[in-house]
Amino acid sequence: MMHYILLSCLLSMIGGGLYFFVLQRRLQVLQAKYVLLGILLLSWMIPVMVPSLPNYTQEIGEEYLADYKNYDAWNVVDIQDDNLVACYESAENSKEQCHCEVKQQSNVLYYQSSSYYNFIITCKNPLFWFFIGMMLIFLMDFVFKLACLVYLAHTSPREQRSLGGTNFYLLRPKQKLPLSISSFSLWKHYVLLDSNLEANFSEREMEAILLHEVAHLQQRDTWQQMLLSVLKIFWWMQPMYYFFKRELDELNEYVADDFAVKHIGDAKFYARILLKAKEQQTQEGTLSLVACFAQGLFKQRILRLVNTPVSSPKPNWVFSLLLVGVVFWSTSAVALPIIQEHDQAIRQYEILQEKNSLTGKHEFCKSCILDELKHK
User: Fold this and answer.
1) Which of 34, 65, 154, 189 can pair with 168 through a Cys bridge, CB separation 3.0 to 4.6 Å?
2) By C-alpha distance, which of 185, 193, 194 is closest to 215?
3) Chain segment 35-76, per-residue pLDDT in tens
């Protein structure tokens, strides 16, 4: 499992580099969103697919095992081979040595203390349990947030509405919410609305605000947020994850803004609504439509609305994902054997260290150690 998590982290970092430095400015907003989600999914799918081609771990072990049935030089003994002589001597009193007839230099493992491996082994268990503890924390956070959404959907007074080709339930919860308006999807679509918001906006302005939320519903942004929450359980230590999340949050807002403007037909009118919502947030000291976004993002949203973008040829997002997939597959085919070899080297060193502490010996049979690794 850790192999896949490490490889997925590596692939996501490479994918992030491709996106932020190569693809980001060449894609339309919606295309960029699809590519970014594709990078996240491919970062997990490809590591699972690649090991099914060869079983790298098995090959690493079997390449060291001698074919004793086909060995035809049982009576050929190099009496000058100190390792072979040592094998015969130690085999008389030790069950750890085996197959001495074919034991040559390639079948001997020597234990030598390594500060690097000692440090890894010392930290391995504490880091593992710390990692598991953090995973449980983020899992509970995800379950708690999901439970809150289910609670609001069941307890809030609802009104069925239809707008922009989407049916949804308008919920007016009695609880004080951190946002004046927000939306989410479970088995149905829901829009949470603070009653005070309607009192300060006209009917047309409210339509524009609701269209923004309808766009989030149509794009299944709630499911996207759930996916990100699940990924955080495994990627909480991955810096690129937080760049991905911030970028997706921005893209979601741009897509929703474009959808609202398309139906309203007046980008500057919609920009004034955002400014009005921001002003109301400042006056009341409460969060509103734009409260969850940084000041820089709010400014960027306004600039996108008031400035007419210059159209330019855009690459196909499917082609971009194919490029990412090829890079990910090539990287996995090279990196996965290296990761698994390194892991096997650590486990092999751990066995040798344990046997050395028990017996005081420094020479061990490689075939026997590999057999232990298979069953450990």
Assistant:
1) 189
2) 185
3) 999 999 999 999 888 765 444 444 444 444 444 445 445 445
